[in-house]
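A favour, since you know our structure tokens better than I do. Just paste the record in under my message, thanks.
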Amino acid sequence: MSNKKPAGRVVEASPQELQRVLGTAPPGSWVALSRDRTKVVGTGVSAQAAVYQAQLQGESTPVLVQMPMDGEEMAAGAV
């Protein structure tokens, strides 16, 4: 088993900080949040990539958010 540090970052954040972090995510990207929605535990171009990063951070059931494309609403759901 590798001791390599995961590529994703873990951000402990208040709701205002999460809004700032989510606001900087590229359109169409996926963001995995901790189950209690206090940390960003993964990001990716696909839901699977974001979930994989979350699992590397120890979050087995992340909440997924897909960033909207211009003019679209945000999609969210639990894994």
